[in-house]
Write a structure and sequence with these properties.
The structure holds two protein chains of two kinds. Chain A is mainly β. Chain A has no helices and eleven strands. In chain A, strands 2, 4, 5, 6, 9, 10 and 11 form a seven-stranded mixed β-sheet that branches. In chain A, strands 1-3-8-7 form a four-stranded antiparallel β-sheet, with no helix packed on it. In chain A, a hairpin with a 6-residue loop joins strand 4 and strand 5. The radius of gyration of chain A is 13 Å and the shape is globular. The N and C termini of chain A lie far apart (33 Å). Chain B is mainly beta. Helices cover 0% and strands 55% of the residues of chain B. Chain B is built from no helices and eleven strands. In chain B, strands 2, 4, 5, 9, 10 and 11 form a six-stranded mixed β-sheet that branches. In chain B, strands 1-3-8-7-6 form a five-stranded antiparallel β-sheet, with no helix packed on it. In chain B, strand 4 and strand 5 form a beta hairpin. Classes of the chains: A mainly beta, B mainly beta. At the A-B interface, strand 5 and strand 10 of A face strand 4, strand 5, strand 9 and strand 10 of B.
């Protein structure tokens, strides 16, 4: 159904932990995105990569660190998170700037 | 920046009836308006989109209308079925990398 996969699907971490979220797209797209989805709030764009280069960083705290080693893979490295960072983290990819295809998301809980 | 408002936040309809979800936007530079459907445990999926050079687009039971002058666009679902139950999001973009999403509408189709 979707050409965008995300792992893990669920993650529980303490505030002192370091973890990473992984996204992989099998669609041959050249742009990849990280979004944060919280209850009753609009999707928040966090980072954008075009051809492996970061082109957008929407004032995201430094405790979130993205990495894009190639146009098919995207990581989000997490460290010293806060409970308010608990949310669904969605990865998306696109060939054009529009028509984004989303992965299933990683449900993150920070304890 | 762009501000997208979406109404209603929840909507219940009888199976077979129509459902209408409305969004407004503030930035006249926005020219691409996708609609996403998100089912429980899944990422958003693009169901239909419209660009600012057309006023209406239809795909089987789904249609979207756009009024550029009034800066609003709507999703219409006819002959609703239980499998249409999901959360629907509108978005606006100027076809750069920035997408602005509405807060979502939870649609329930009652059999």
């Amino acid at each position: 159904e979707t050409g965008v996969t995300q792992t893990p699907r669920h993650l529980v971490m303490g505030m002192t932990n370091k973890k990473s979220l992984k996204c992989e797209q099998h669609l041959g797209h050249n742009a990849m995105y990280w979004y944060k989805q919280s209850a009753k709030k609009p999707l928040e764009l966090m980072f954008v990569y075009n051809f492996k280069e970061q082109t957008e960083n929407n004032s995201v705290p430094s405790r979130f660190s993205p990495e894009c080693p190639n146009s098919s893979h995207l990581f989000l490295h997490l460290h010293t998170l806060q409970p308010e960072d608990s949310a669904l983290y969605l990865c998306a990819s696109s060939q054009d700037p529009d028509e984004q295809y989303f992965g299933p998301g990683t449900r993150l809980t920070v304890t | 920046g762009e501000n997208v408002e979406q109404h209603p936040s929840t909507l219940s309809v009888q199976e077979g009836d129509s459902a209408v979800i409305k969004c407004t936007y503030s930035d006249s530079a926005s020219n691409y308006f996708p609609w996403y459907k998100q089912e429980l445990g899944k990422g958003p999926q693009l169901i239909i989109d419209i660009r600012s050079n057309v006023g209406e687009k239809k795909d089987q039971r789904i249609a979207v209308t756009l009024n550029k002058t009034a800066k609003h666009f709507s999703l219409h679902i006819t002959e609703t079925q239980p499998e249409d139950s999901a959360v629907y999001f509108c978005a606006a973009s100027d076809t750069g990398n920035q997408f602005y999403f509405g807060t979502g509408t939870s649609l329930t189709v009652i059999p």
